[in-house]
Amino acid sequence: LPSYKDFVGNLYNYRGCWYYPNAIQGVLNFERGFKPQKTDIILASYPKSGATWLKALTIALFERLKNNSSDELHPLQSHNPHRIVPVLEIGLYLKTSTPDLTKFSTPRVFSTHMPFHTLQLPLKDSPCKIVYVCRNVKDVLVSLWYFRCVQLQKKVDMEPLFESLCEGVGFFGPFWEHVLSYWRGSLEYPKQVLFMRYEEMKSEPSAQVKRLAEFLGCPFTEEEEEGSVDKILELCSLRNLSGLEINKSGKTLNKVPYSAFFRKGEVGDFKNHLTPEMENKIDMIIQEKYKGSGLNF
Ligand code: A3P
């Protein structure tokens, strides 16, 4: 796709999903080397759908069960959520099929952008839990664009990214099939796959964090301190996380500043960026792709 190749770079397709070259090696390493434990948790998403938030919430949910002394720093205060919950294919398994996983305590929490069917291969006979966070594709597009501008360190035109998203060619795309793969997974294996929506996490955060806790096997109990849910929501809020020193100054392995993972965190920011034509085109694709699936946006 020469018109936007310069924008997205060389991509390769593996099992129906587009990857940049070394990410494929990461996927293969993962497929070959990953040995699931039945308590493993995998947080899955299409890029820019809310993984940072989901990771922070999951970390905070399990952390509250530990009896740490009050003067100990919470892991979210000393580490970025992506450092604590690495991406399998472009982090842990990028260069090796036998990464050192001994530093992970139980439950081990990982993340991924692989579609469900690829992820499922090594997990086939394991009751690992998968949480998928889905976000309105129009906001995903805007968020991707901002992120891409930070990566390239210049403001670039959104049009090529828009075209590539519509065509389904982009990192970890097509977006449409990515979402559908987990949606169907959640219907087929409801005890193993939880399908969450960024928009619902924003509109009813307490209910969604309780739902997440329940699914992960660490529900809030009656004995638990009052305000426990609110404390977690505040700790994991964009305002709080983005203000922490670690997230203001640190960088990922690929040298992306952690601060780039925190922007507006709003629902509907696309209204400030997409033309009516762009919206129409996306709406038509949504209608066609999700017809009969029970999934709506
Ligand atoms: P915007 O660019 O629309 O602001 P990901 O974490 O999957 O990379 O997604 C990044 C998007 O999630 C960004 O969206 C970012 O601002 C938003 N985000 C990051 N942390 C968040 C948080 N704690 N709460 C809500 N949204 C958050």
Automatic annotation (TrEMBL):
The keyword Transferase applies. It is an enzyme of class 2 (transferase). This is Sulfotransferase. Residues 38-294 form the Sulfotransferase domain. The keyword Transferase applies. Its EC number is 2.8.2.-. Belongs to the sulfotransferase 1 family. It comes from the Eukaryota. Keywords: Transferase. It comes from Raphanus sativus (Radish). One of its GO terms (molecular function) is sulfotransferase activity. It holds the Pfam family Sulfotransfer_1. PANTHER family: SULFOTRANSFERASE SULT. The gene is LOC108829344.
